[in-house]
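Hi support team,

I'm opening this ticket because the web form for multi-chain structure prediction keeps timing out on my end. I have pasted the exact lines I submitted so you can reproduce it. The total is 519 residues across two entries, so I didn't expect it to be a heavy job. Is there a limit I'm missing, or should I split the entries? Thanks in advance, R.K.
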Amino acid sequence: MTELLNDEENEILQEVINIGMGQAGALLAELLDVFVHLSVPQVCWVDGNNFVEQVVQLVEGCGDSWTGVRQTFYNQLEGEVFALYGADGCRHLGKLMGSDEEGGAAEEERLLEVTNILMGACLIGVAEQLNREIDFAPPVLIDINKPISQLLDCRDRDWRKCLLIEVNFRLEEIDFSCHLVMLLSEDSIEQLRTGLLQFMENF
Amino acid sequence: MVAELQRAGLDFIVDRVDVGILVVTRDFEVVLWNRFMAAHSGVAHERIVGSNLFESFPELPREWLAKKLKSVFILNNFAFSSWQQRPYLFRFKHHRPITGGASFMYQDCTFVPFKNQEGDQDLVCITVFDVTDVAIAQKQLSEARQRMEELSNQDALTGVYNRRYLQVQLTREFSRVVRNGGALSVLFIDLDYFKKVNDTYGHPAGDYVLVEVAQRIKESVRTTDYLARYGGEEFAVVLSDTGMNGGINVANRIRERIAEAPFIFEGQTIAMTASLGLSEYRETVETPESLLAESDEALYSAKQSGRNRVVCYKAS
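Hello R.K., no limit was hit. The queue was backed up. Here is the completed structure from your submission:
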């Protein structure tokens, strides 16, 4: 995972992400009132050609039935987040969100809400440590029960490299799992570097 | 002086921007209520600021809003609500009093947490966007798509399914009985001496008879059956969950319905009969096409043996 950042910068990045995700876990536990297991964040560089394959590998794309939500973040750090829920992963969202409203729209709404919460918890922590500004667009449901490759399908990819951060959430007691795949655009790598250097100086 | 002017300018903009803006405390006390909100709700700024939001709007989803605010404050993050899942937060009239198309204003909302100037109070700014035009356009689009799909399955003259759609459904039903067992039969219906109708009374009369025949057949089958115009004066019906015995009943009913009363077109009386061929699924029938072929063969026998009758396929 070199190329756009040097070894030292990469090391700090991993540290910043670890701290950010730790904070996210604590916040989510407070908000949802359950213990949240977060996997060790995986950080790697992907390019336009292998991005889908790499995500499938990371997620160990078991099964062809995934539900995907996409959300954009922008400002000094910019990119897109994909929340991938396995077939059983989102069945118990109602319990998690303390709502038993039935019907497709209510379930979709919970899915978008959980995505926004997970993503916000993760990225705000990282952005704060790096002292970078970050804003969010509303989450959008991509599709339900489709293979990952189809969910991530995108046209006119005009980027070479971007930074991928993947975390897997699991909850105790409730059968729920979600892979959060965060992709930071090439254009914001300079902002990321500046933030990393500042973080190092203040450390 | 300049600073004062800026402040007044900002207040003016917040008040007059074409977006609903309200600010509430953790306990839903309204702190700010802009003109968009006042104009659409009919609740004046003076009446609501300083009071609880639910006093003026008891119908708001209280529990849902409380959860939204909790997540916004704990994570110190934006939250959203989209018209596609929740058509509106505040039930307002839409902006189309004349052209209509919606019975309320579709809304997208954003929730943004912030602190008051002293930094001792948590507030949330809620913006309400009118997305009625987008919602209507999207609904029209999906209606048009659905309509086009229906049209592509329909026979233009008679309104029953077309041959292509019948084949799709037959293939589906066929796989179902192969997998799960059960009964399935196919009925072919061909009008006798139909060419004479066109030759004697003209094509409009022929078309009229076809439309009426389709209607009579339709009234004789179940909604779970698939009726299609298969060719010129030939109709086919896929009878789901129906074996030979049930099929014969349906076929005879259709034959009688067509023969019992003549068709009247522009004062002319046109008598009509039909020949019918019936086949049923058995394990030895390997493809949907061969089931169709058997039914067609039975129809041929019906024509050969004198018309206006039903013939069932017999495996030789």
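A quick check on our side: The mean pLDDT of chain A is 84. Let us know if the file doesn't open in your viewer.
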